[in-house]
Fold:
Amino acid sequence: QVQLVESGGGLVQAGGSLRLSCAASGSIGSINAMGWYRQAPGKQRDLVATITSGGSTTIANNVKDRFTISRGNAKNTVYLQMNSLKSEDTAVYYCFLRNLLGKGDYYWGQGTQVTVSS
Structure:
């Protein structure tokens, strides 16, 4: 099993910044991907950004000029730096980890609320 603990959400004014953190523990495979999805009220959960254990990143087109994903030195922590936040970024942000070998199961954090006021 893998446990994910998120932090860093909150209320911010439009144009502001937030940094989300997610720390993973447990059975973390050496080849994995971590990242973030988000879900706004009444909408589906959408992929925001991913980073693999090898350092490859993908970021959704609608945030790629404003958000950056990175991993900590210990490789079991992932960060999402969010700049120039907009009201449409308001959502619950979920951290995930996926072991890329074996069954490829997803593990999820509990979610952290990000609210951007206009």
